[in-house]
Amino acid sequence: MKISLFILIIFGFLLTTACQKASTQVVLQTIKFQSETLNRAVGDNLQLTPIFTPSVFSSIDVVWSTSNDAVLTIQPDHTIHANKAGSAWITVKDKNSATAGKCLIIVN
């Protein structure tokens, strides 16, 4: 009787674990821009739109930054202003991972 009960418990455990749906976690793979390098004139404003892969991440919170705020500044609405001649990287980074995309902007 004990063996039958033990086998029944094992069978029930295997049945419930085998029927559970495996979770599939979607992970942000890349962030990039339409172009890796852009040329702009002093005084120009531009909007960059990050491209997320997979696209389901297109509405995630990201952090915008510039490598040289004397050349390029980023406004609160993410408009980028070309202040003076030079070059700078604009980086968009996912707040929850190390995934980031960069665009080099050369200001003439």
From TrEMBL:
* Pfam families named among the record's database cross-references: Big_2
SUPFAM superfamilies recorded: Invasin/intimin cell-adhesion fragments
Keywords, alphabetical:
Signal
Leader sequence residues: 1-18
> What Gene3D superfamilies does the annotation carry?
2.60.40.1080
What's the superkingdom here? Answer: Bacteria
Q: Which residues form the BIG2 domain?
A: 30-96
User: InterPro entries under this entry?
Assistant: Big_2, Invasin/intimin_cell_adhesion
Tell me what this protein is called: Ig-like domain-containing protein
Report the source organism. Answer: Mucilaginibacter mali
